[in-house]
Design a protein that fits this description.
Number of strands: 8
Strand content: 5-15%
Order of helices and strands: EEHEHEHHHHHHHHEHHEEEHHHH
Number of domains: 2
Largest sheet: 6 strands, mixed
Radius of gyration: 29 Å
Strand order of the largest sheet: 3-4-5-8-7-6
Shape: globular
Helix content: 40-55%
CATH architecture of the largest domain: 3-Layer(aba) Sandwich
Structural class: alpha/beta
CATH class of the largest domain: Alpha Beta
Length: 421
């Protein structure tokens, strides 16, 4: 999405064909502290929750517009992928509410853009269902990982961050061992390390570091300390912040179809079932339409009530990397407020979109709903009752026949009646 890309073969940078910078000004921030070239000399400098993380970004933006005041009125969209789905809503809310402890931030916030966001944990806890739907495991495989998945789901419900973090890692490790799936970001790709890390050779060159004013700071692609410090925030749910923002700003959530870590369907179902905001019905009643780009279906879009939800076809967790042209098209249409084009022979039918059905129950890690469990219990009770009735009738018939066809005295009749009762 940036203006340049690194060519590992020539060891040079070149202009990126589908850079967002062609139409918009971009500001990239290494976040949280400890990622990229951002740094701290103290353990206390690492963030431990999304509020602190958003506070750092809020303060950075205040300093930025102080240096470039001409940008205060420019339409601002805050964007990020994956874990950014946890701190972007917190940042958006701080901007909206103008955090009094940090000072006023005079910017023109227009919207939030999130790719494959991890807003909460319970809506994407059912990894066995995702792996089974893709054919990576069968029902026996799902049964094999059930203890780990149940333990993970239970830790989430109990809001036990450390246990949830531990069981999630064990669950994903087990799934990778079973399937020999090399990485979780894109089911169709074996290796992502090359495209993800090849640029490091360039940005760590002394001449480049001097040009971007980072001095002798070491570049960190993956910082274990950052990860560790955020474990106490692992199961926090930021969905309520997104719902608050939807009352005032438009939000785009796009998702790569081939992602195993933050699966599209489970996330979408959670939004439809649990999110509440003033324009919710407008979103639910909006038809889900195919998105047409370059003479083919690029994905599927559902937009209404200030929320736009897009599934990007053929992309994984890192959509801008997998589908740069389609992503450029999507961002451009969203920011400009245009509807994404649909196929030429496709006729949208908003009136034929049925009401969204929401079950009263919640789905657990095993996939069984409360309603299904109740139904099973009712059927078991019905079978037991029927069986008891059959036994009762047979015993009654036997005793009746004994009464009419046998020589019995009054005592035996009384005993028969007492036994039957």
């Amino acid at each position: 999405m940036g203006p340049f890309e690194y060519d590992a073969a020539t060891k040079k940078i070149k202009a990126r064909q589908w850079s967002w910078a062609k139409n918009y000004s971009l500001l990239f921030i290494d976040n949280p502290v400890g990622a990229g070239f951002s740094f701290t000399n103290s353990k206390e400098g690492f963030v431990r929750d999304m509020d602190s993380c958003a506070g750092h970004l809020y303060d950075a933006l205040r300093q930025f517009v102080a240096i470039f005041p001409e940008l205060k009125k420019a339409p601002l969209y805050i964007a990020g992928e994956s874990y950014a789905g946890r701190y972007l809503p917190a940042l958006g809310l701080k901007i909206h509410q103008q955090d009094p402890l940090l000072g006023k931030l005079d910017v023109n916030l227009q919207g939030v853009i999130m790719g494959n966001p991890v807003l909460n944990r319970d809506s994407i806890a059912n990894y066995s269902a995702v792996f089974q739907q893709w054919g990576l495991i069968d029902s026996q495989g799902a049964e094999a990982i059930k203890p780990l998945q149940d333990a993970y789901y239970d830790a989430i419900k109990k809001e036990n961050d450390e246990k949830a973090f531990e069981f999630r890692n064990k669950l994903l490790d087990k799934l990778q061992d079973m399937t020999v799936q090399p990485q979780m970001f894109n089911i169709l790709k074996d290796d992502l390390n090359g495209p993800l890390t090849s640029f490091i050779e360039f940005v760590t060159r002394p001449v480049v570091k001097e040009a971007i004013h980072v001095g002798n700071i070491e570049f960190t692609f993956s910082n274990g300390s950052v990860h560790e410090m955020l474990i106490p925030d692992f199961v926090s749910d930021v969905s309520s912040k997104v719902m608050t923002l939807l009352e005032h700003y438009k939000i785009l959530i796009y998702c790569g179809q081939l992602d195993l870590t933050a699966p599209c369907v489970q996330n979408a179902q959670a939004r439809r079932s649990h999110w509440q905001w003033s324009y919710r019905e407008d979103f639910l009643k909006a038809p889900r339409k195919p998105w047409w780009y370059n003479n083919s279906v690029a994905g599927y879009v559902k937009s209404g009530g200030r929320l736009t939800e897009v599934l990007v076809r053929g992309a994984g967790h890192l959509v801008p990397m997998d589908k740069p042209a389609q992503m450029h098209n999507l961002i451009d249409y969203f920011i400009r407020g245009f509807d994404l084009p649909f196929p030429p022979n496709y006729i949208p039918s908003p009136d034929e979109t049925p009401d969204y059905f929401i079950e009263d129950s919640t789905e657990g890690s095993t996939g069984l709903t409360v309603g299904l469990i109740v139904s099973i219990m009712f059927n078991i009770l019905l079978i037991v009752s029927f069986g008891a009735g059959v036994i009762y009738v047979l015993r009654w018939k036997s005793r009746t026949e004994a009464y009419f066809y046998s020589n019995v005295d009054e005592t035996s009749i009384s005993e028969s009646v007492l036994t039957m009762s």
